[in-house]
């Protein structure tokens, strides 16, 4: 009975990710690739995504600390990040990558050091998707319920897209 | 070659059937992103296409230079060292007749021109989805 309830809870959580716009139909394509020959495919790919994304965000963080900003390097990181996010169906992350890149392009073409200013300011205000103000400091919120449920990681830092949510299912 | 559309003929999972290539087709995925490589490879294999995946462009060139042949080669635009168009150019220079599909995360007209000039047959923005892949497989199959 507990197992059934847990599965129902997971199904509702999964649906909420689509309803809130975190996931798109590409995630369903990913799920459809899981079969008897690849029984853990979704978990493997999402775990890989989380690992790669963590590395990319770290690279972006470090690149944002440089003076002057290397927009080509930032562009490359965003290219990789958007590619994997798009492929996995991480809709909101994909959108943030696109916006970030627009700021990079603007900064690069005008030769100004911090054309990321407006975008940085937006993040600095700590406005997340729900319009609530948060601290500007680096915080990792690692909500681990237990291994059989959804692990959600929030990364909020000044200079990085707020509201990036990475998740993986462990069924 | 029409890379933009085509019907997903026979792709009706609800009736227990899934589109699959009739002939033995082979594909090579060239992408430095692990997630993208995994998903593209799995997608092609799910349609019965024998698929290999490599990370750098040089590995793809070496593979073909060693005698391997592929019906379809999917190449990411931004590869380290040897980029996508240059990889495609070197593959074509060896006389390979494969269908080459260039892919990228952010569509750019100049990149498209570069890829097509290098010998690619098409250029799309990710994701590589069934809507893209099935018409290609169908065309190769027939």
Summarize the structure.
The complex is a heterodimer of chains A (171) and B (142). Chain A is mainly alpha-helical and 171 residues long. Chain A has helices at residues 2-19, 25-32, 41-65, 71-88, 91-110, 117-124; strands at residues 139-143, 151-156, 164-168.
Give a structural overview.
With 171 residues, chain A is mainly α. Helix content of chain A is 57%, strand content 9%. In chain A, strands 1-2-3 form a 3-stranded antiparallel beta sheet. The model of chain A is unreliable at 111-171 (pLDDT under 50). Chain B is of the alpha/beta class and 142 residues long. In chain B, 37% of the residues lie in helices and 19% in strands. Chain B is built from 5 helices and 5 strands; from the N terminus they run βαβαβαβαβα. In chain B, strand 1 (25-30), helix 1 and strand 2 form a beta-alpha-beta unit. In chain B, helix 2 (57-65) packs parallel to helix 3 (84-93) and helix 3 (84-93) runs parallel beside helix 4 (109-117). The longest helix of chain B has 13 residues, at 34-46. The two termini of chain B are 13 Å apart. Classes of the chains: A mainly alpha (171), B alpha/beta (142). At the A-B interface, helix 2, helix 3, helix 4 and helix 5 of A face helix 1 of B. Chain A: It is found in: Cytoplasm, Cytosol; Nucleus. Chain A: This is Histidine-containing phosphotransfer protein.
Features:
heterodimer; A: 171 residues; mainly alpha; 3 strands; 57% helix; disordered C terminus; B: 142 residues; alpha/beta; five-stranded parallel sheet; 5 strands; 19% strand; disordered N terminus; cytoplasm (chain A)
